[in-house]
């Protein structure tokens, strides 16, 4: 593209040099002017707190920290236990693991009671 012609015809909102910065792209307005649209940095959604899952959390806005600070609470977490910090799969696995451990404790307690009752006989 011919940058010298484009910079000559374009209008700036910021103080810039001869060439547009890398985060600016040119756009034609309805008034037939060429203006630069300045893009902001792309944010990232938080990772899962478990450290096992490689992806990012779903249902949470992927924005920069300053924008995240201004967001409402409902946009920063998912309405579930450990909503804003852990993914659903990890929460499900933890619940299953805790349930199975409790069941195992009950089985051990029952076996001890049976062994003690047989000793008394």
UniProtKB/TrEMBL annotation:
GO biological process: translation
Molecular function terms from GO: structural constituent of ribosome
Pfam families xrefs: Ribosomal_L34e (PF01199)
Family annotation (Gene3D superfamilies): 6.20.340.10, 6.20.370.70
GO cellular component: ribonucleoprotein complex; ribosome
Keyword field: Ribonucleoprotein, Ribosomal protein
Similarity remark: Belongs to the eukaryotic ribosomal protein eL34 family.
Matches recorded under PANTHER family: 60S RIBOSOMAL PROTEIN L34
UniProt protein name: Large ribosomal subunit protein eL34
Organism from which the protein derives: Oryzias latipes
């Amino acid at each position: 593209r011919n940058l010298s012609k484009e910079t000559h015809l374009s209008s700036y909102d910021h103080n810039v040099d001869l060439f547009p910065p890398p985060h600016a792209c040119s756009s034609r307005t309805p008034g037939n002017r060429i203006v630069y649209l300045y893009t902001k940095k792309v944010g990232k959604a938080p990772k899962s707190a478990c450290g096992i899952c490689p992806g990012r959390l779903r249902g949470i806005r992927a924005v920069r920290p300053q924008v995240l600070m201004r967001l409402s609470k409902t946009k920063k977490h998912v309405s579930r236990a450990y909503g804003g910090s852990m993914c659903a799969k990890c929460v499900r696995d933890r619940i299953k693991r805790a349930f199975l451990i409790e069941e195992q404790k009950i089985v051990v307690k029952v076996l001890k009671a049976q062994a003690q009752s047989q000793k008394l006989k």
